[in-house]
Amino acid sequence: MAKMNQDPLQLSEQPFRDGRIGIIDIGSNSIRMVVYDQQKRSPVAIYNEKVMCELGKGLATTGMLNPDGVELAKNALRRFLAMGRNMEITSLYVMATAAVRDAKDGEAFARYLEDTYDIDVDTISGKKEAKLGAYGVCASMFKPRGITGDLGGGSLELVWVDDGQIADHTSVLLGSLRLLDETKGDKEKMKKLIDKRFGELDWLGGHKTEHFYAIGGSFRALAKMHMEAGHYPLRILHEYRVEAKDFQAFVRQIASLPADKLEKFPGVAAKRIPTLPGAAMILDKIITVAKPEGIVFSASGIREGYLYEKLSPYIRAQDGLLASCTEFATKGGRSTAYSNELYTWMYPLLKDESDRDRRLRMAFCLLSEIAQHIHPEYRAEWAYERILFSSITGLSHRERVKLALALYHRHQFKVKQVWSEMDMLKQKDAAWAKLVGTCANLAYHISGSVAGNLLKTEFVTSGKNATLQLSGSMQDIMGDALKRRIAGVDEAYRGYAGK
Fold first, then answer.
1. Beta carbons of 430 and 405 less than 8 angstroms apart
2. Which among 114, 217, 304, 491 could disulfide-bond with 300, CB atoms 3.0 to 4.6 Å apart, if both were Cys?
3. What count of other Cβ atoms lies within 10 Å of the Cβ of residue 453?
């Protein structure tokens, strides 16, 4: 993203592809169908269903797909295709990963599905699977830098990624089901096999790793257990962040627990219990070798990466958060002209912002009027919760709360209700949110959220104080309501400038 200053971020309306897009992902552990609203920079999943088929169960020892899983998969695919017709999807992609590509009968199974259901099955290679998992992270997080790891039933895909650019990548035969099959659940054998497979990698420890981005159901299951155990205030797995050293202690605890103790662990998924110790041991090994500073969990993976890869380079280069917010802002037929003007107008009060805060402020400006049709008594709370619980991506949990609080202050100067997730915010975050939200409230009472008015006024700062100058005919709008709001901005600016 280009460095931001007082100039607005020019966001053209993005070209959408009409119609819903469906993806059926035939994995080693499960088959999942996800339907997205459109093929665009930040698609929204509007339907998501999986069937646990365990196609890869026993593959490591027999070399063949699990026969029971094959029958389950056939039935699941029949249902998914029927659902696709019912939902009137315009494009359908069917892809298969480790179990189908590795099994002796995998090619025959894929051909049966193609002939029976008149579909194309894209059996992707290990390296392609690794790349798509990394693309899934790039599609839904802001400038990721580190190693992505996608743990499936049959393999582990590892990729070095730096701001959307992919370097080293590999596929390792260490899937959660494969590990269980090869070792019969013996934890000592698991450890030896993990050590052996990681010993074959020559690049994993060769980078300074800021983050490890954990993808896949088994890793997400561990994250959910950690969130439940720590009473984390948000039930959002995507971009859940933890310190690597602290989380290593947690996964070692999980790896050591017998099944009967795991069953009682808060937040545990019963179907995941047999594979959890192996997944925990794999993550422990990754932390030991790659030495990341933090772990970031991703709900996006190869399905999102599959769609992301199909976008033009121009669309891929767009900021996913701002693309989502632009869609929010323009759904009612509005343009982004007022948002851009509001962004520029605030600049004199926020000259020392970081690039991430400037980006977040642009997102705020795009969303500032989303509660316009809500009853005035509920606008602040509605705007806060609308963003807190939304499906938008590309921002950390702390940034999500910060953005939500700013939208609360767009309608309410003082916080009347304290939510538990507000504890994530530092004092400077809360001060930023109050100043930005209060500015937007003042802007509305100057312009009625109509573009062309704000830039006839100008903020002037002196020390830790701020006031507003109005030129020409704009002086006619001055009154008690406006004076109160200018005073509110001055108070919020003092809180921000003295942070």
1. yes
2. 304
3. 17
Q: Which of 8-37 are b and which e, b meaning 16 or more Cβ less than 10 Å from the residue's Cβ? A: bbebeebeeeeebbbbbbbbbbbbbbbbbb
Tokens of 435: 């100043």
CATH class of residue range 319-497: mainly alpha
Give the other-Cβ count within 10 Å of 84's Cβ. Answer: 20
Is the Cα torsion angle 96, 190, 284, 290 positive or negative in sign? negative
Q: What digits encode the pLDDT tens for the residues 122-156?
A: 999 998 999 999 999 999 999 999 999 999 999 99
Question: Which three-class secondary structure state does DSSP give residue 374?
Answer: coil
- pTM tops 0.85, yes or no: yes
CA 128 to chain CA mean position, Å: 21
Contacts with 323 (C-beta within 8 Å, 6 or more apart), sequence order: 11, 14, 40, 41, 42
β pairing state of 89-96 and 121-123: parallel
Domain boundaries, the chain: 20-123, 127-304, 319-497
Which CATH class for the 127-304 domain?
A: alpha beta
Question: For residue range 327-351, what is the model confidence (pLDDT) as tens digits?
Answer: 888 876 678 999 999 999 999 999 9
